[in-house]
Structures are given as structure tokens and as C-alpha cells.
Amino acid sequence: MNQTNWKIQPKDVLNAGPVMPVMVIQDLDDAVPLAQALVAGGIKVLEITLRTPIALEAIKLISENVKEAIVGVGTITTPEQLKAAEAAGAVFAISPGLTPTLLAAAQASNIALIPGIATLSELMMGMEYGLDHFKFFPAEAAGGIPMLKAIAGPAPYITFCPTGGISPDNYNAYLALNNVACVGGSWLAPADAVKTKNWAKVTELAKQAIDNVIAA
Fold first, then answer.
1. For 10-205, CATH number?
2. Closest residue by Cα to residue 133 from 74, 174, 180, 100
3. Where does the chain have alpha helices with state H?
4. Can 11 be counted among the known catalytic residues?
5. Do 160 and 134 touch, CB atoms closer than 8 A?
6. What SS3 class is residue 20?
7. 25 with 107: CB under 8 angstroms?
8. Peptide bond before 79: cis, by omega within 30 degrees of 0?
9. pLDDT digits (tens, 9 = 90+) for 113-158
10. Which pLDDT does position 159 carry in this prediction?
């Protein structure tokens, strides 16, 4: 895949920190304070999912107002969404899966794609497009740590961000794997804290996640 036009490379996204929050923003007024709270806690790579109608607006606001953040979009499934996210200011995109159409769209785009895979066949398709950094999703349901260890055999130079079922109880076990650069999780921006605008709690969760990483 021709990556020369991408503003940021997938490896730079996944290596920018050990944890990536999966953010679901229901209220546009929460977008900037939530991003600021996460950045204050030491997390700068943010994935805003397209699970709400205001997600693209939230990406635009965060991109414009939280300059320390590396702003990305999640739940990308179509080339049209990829283009809209790029226009909103996202510099990377994460998809739950991958298709030839989406991969081709990313190839012609300025936004770095980190596609999701759950099988070796999907991984091989992504590799045919020159990719070597992927989301592993849904991590726990797709085999978890044993699956990632098995994948490392035939694909030792591929790097992953597992997402799906990742929590404070198991994220260090994933980070201990040689083929895992970071993990994604919704626990870093819990719905109850966002709903009550408890930004101090979000910052504390971010700090805990960073501080409690066990060196491999």
C-alpha cells in the first residue's frame, strides 16, 4: 500500500501509548472536555467511534480544540465514512474488519487505516495491501491471548492493538505479548462518568492505566 500521503503511519499511532480509549460520544458538549480529561491523564491517542450521529462533529471539535491529541475515528466500515472522517480532521481510522473496497479507499486517502482482523485469512488480505499494523477484534471472543500467540508463528512481524473485552484486569497480559503495541478499551471513558461529566474520574482512570502498565 502506498502510504506516502498518510499524515501519520499506523505504527506511530499504536506506539504512541499503551492504551487507546474507545470513545462513544452522545452529547457534543462532552467531546472537548472528555478529550482534555484523557490527555490530562497521559493518553493522547483518541478513537472516537461512529456509533452516534454526532461523532463526526465531535471529531472536528476535538481536532480543532485539543491540539495535543492524535485524533482518530473508529467503527469505519465504508469508503464514504473514511472520507467524511478525514474531512472532519481525523488522522487515523480504525475499522472492525476489512474489505478490498475499504483497503483500496485507504490507499487513495490521506488518513491512515488500521483495519480489524480476527482470522489469518483476513490478516493475509491486509498484508497484500502492505499493512503490518492491525486491530485484533473482537479480541476476547476471537481467541484472545492464545490466538495472538498462534498468529505470531506465521506472521512474526505483524503488530496488533487488541480491542473487545479488554479491561483493567487483563490489559497487561495482552501488552506483555511481543506482537501487541497497545490495547483499546471503553473502560477509559465509562458512560457513567461521561454522563455525569465527571472529568476528574476520567483523568484518574487514564493515569491509572498508564501508571499500572507492567514493563514487559
1. 3.20.20.70
2. 180
3. 10-14, 31-40, 55-65, 79-88, 100-107, 120-128, 144-151, 171-175, 191-195, 199-211
4. no
5. yes
6. strand
7. no
8. no
9. 999 999 999 999 999 999 999 999 999 999 999 999 999 999 999 9
10. 98
With beta carbons less than 8 A apart as the criterion, state whether 14 and 181 touch. Answer: yes
pLDDT per residue as tens digits for the range 39-74: 999 999 999 999 999 999 999 999 999 999 999 999
Does residue 2 carry a pLDDT above 50?
A: no
Domain definitions of the chain by residue range: 10-205
60 is catalytic: no
pTM of this prediction?
0.95
Catalytic: which of 11, 44, 47, 195? Answer: 47
Q: Cell match 467531546: residue?
A: 31
Q: Please pick, among 7, 57, 80, 135, the residue that the annotation labels catalytic.
A: 135
